[in-house]
Task: structure prediction
Amino acid sequence: GAVVSQHPSRVICKSGTSVKIECRSLDFQATTMFWYRQFPKQSLMLMATSNEGSKATYEQGVEKDKFLINHASLTLSTLTVTSAHPEDSSFYICSARAEGGSYNEQFFGPGTRLTVL
Amino acid sequence: AQKVTQAQTEISVVEKEDVTLDCVYETRDTTYYLFWYKQPPSGELVFLIRRNSFDEQNEISGRYSWNFQKSTSSFNFTITASQVVDSAVYFCALGRGAGNMLTFGGGTRLMVKP
Result:
């Protein structure tokens, strides 16, 4: 099956610093990747849709200047949490869409747990 | 707008009991996909099943079975003879396409006690 990786798996940072999270499709090309956020004991909420070579589409209520998304290649999308604060502490999960003709399916990464002190 | 409701936030059963996790969805689309995922404590989502809106056949996979009822907009998940390893949070999700963004339900935390 298709594999999606995320790096780092866990990060702890000080308030005010920026953190970059990478999402890679290891064995397929993904023109579209999705970024979800999951607060403790809550569901996954879509933050943004990342499209290779173009600007990301953000969901309502998600600050695009705070959560910078770059999808520079068909196998890599990055999410940068700028000037992170404790309320940004969450589990960030990406998924990548594998496409081929009329078939498309998405595969989830293992997630990145961000803790902001 | 799409919406998924998992009314049961937590379920506790004793090993070997059968348990059904409910999922009710709302969508205006005529074509859509429904999913179930398992999220163990590690956090990684484990894909369990995908079903498209045109296929109402129930499915069985080992101890797992799914009941898709379009008439009631439900896609329920049953675990037969539950085991401790089934303890996890289970999410039902809805998407416009298999590769499109998903709307997740609130999740059901299943605790299977020995």
About this structure: Chain B has a mean pLDDT of 94. Residues 31 and 85 of chain B are 34 Å apart (CA to CA).
